[in-house]
């Protein structure tokens, strides 16, 4: 499909009926070299990089629903590389560099907007912690600027700086942070993978994983058995359920994270703003809607919907930080199922079954990790060796305790990261 201004005008006049699908809708073949379970952002990017970087094209991506219907379409679209601990820091830095060239790489406009991210702090202790984080980001090669209160006021004059409980002391500014269009990311990877020969098979649920003699040999699906010598599990909040098909018990709890969007407004918020004391973060989409989210719902669940107490908490945080948005009407909300690990850091690793690989545990960080996760997981599946930026994302750290990356410093509790 070629796009042009003429085609857009023509289709607008004639009812948008002339567009053709930009990826195929193939039936599953009896066998592939590799199968990716999960057609979200991480699964599609893994398939794309397997084909592009490693020349593997006999690949199937199996998605039980439709492309873009899972977590890649259920987030707040934030892209950043502001991590502190070794392991996370180099990985997200690598992922951000991939984001910066993604539109050109995919030849698809993913609407990556580096509008800048500001994490606010509200006490001397928080300021010291953000100063250390900023130094770690700079040492990693990324950007960070520590702002005092006046510095934040010049950039975000509409905030409530004088709140008695949470006065704004300053912020950590990450200019290369920003947002991207979430469904465009899924569509861009799907189109690019399809063009390299990858079969994207929608409405195909995996119901079992076939293993013989300690080696994976394929999967059972609602559309029949499919054989493969390599299988990658990349299913976000459903990781524990799919891994259980291979007899694995993962150190993961699934929790719901809610997000919200308002009616379209004139441009009023130019950056991504994170309010740590209220666990609230907000940006404005290209269509004008305010996109914001809060904390997880604290109880384990596979339901992709939220609850009223957390909605009330998020709205209270919004009004505490920026009362000016109080008249905006919330149009819709959604829930994404987070696969939370005990230390809040992800897993990209082999399993004890030969040929079976796992990519999971992204907690809140799944969307911004899409390019880096796919690149590193493809490297592991193709070569059998860990990609250096993701080398610390080992599964066995939860078995022996070595190499834990507790980014939030909250201890081994899934729902506190």
TrEMBL record:
<keyword id="KW-0285">Flavoprotein</keyword>
<keyword id="KW-0963">Cytoplasm</keyword>
<dbReference type="InterPro" id="IPR006278">
    <property type="entry name" value="SoxB"/>
</dbReference>
<protein>
    <recommendedName>
        <fullName>Sarcosine oxidase subunit beta</fullName>
        <ecNumber>1.5.3.24</ecNumber>
    </recommendedName>
</protein>
<comment type="similarity">
    <text>Belongs to the SoxB family.</text>
</comment>
<dbReference type="InterPro" id="IPR006076">
    <property type="entry name" value="FAD-dep_OxRdtase"/>
</dbReference>
<keyword id="KW-0288">FMN</keyword>
<keyword id="KW-0274">FAD</keyword>
<feature type="domain" description="Rhodanese">
    <location>
        <begin position="35"/>
        <end position="78"/>
    </location>
</feature>
<keyword id="KW-0560">Oxidoreductase</keyword>
<dbReference type="InterPro" id="IPR036188">
    <property type="entry name" value="FAD/NAD-bd_sf"/>
</dbReference>
<dbReference type="Pfam" id="PF01266">
    <property type="entry name" value="DAO"/>
</dbReference>
<dbReference type="InterPro" id="IPR001763">
    <property type="entry name" value="Rhodanese-like_dom"/>
</dbReference>
<keyword id="KW-0547">Nucleotide-binding</keyword>
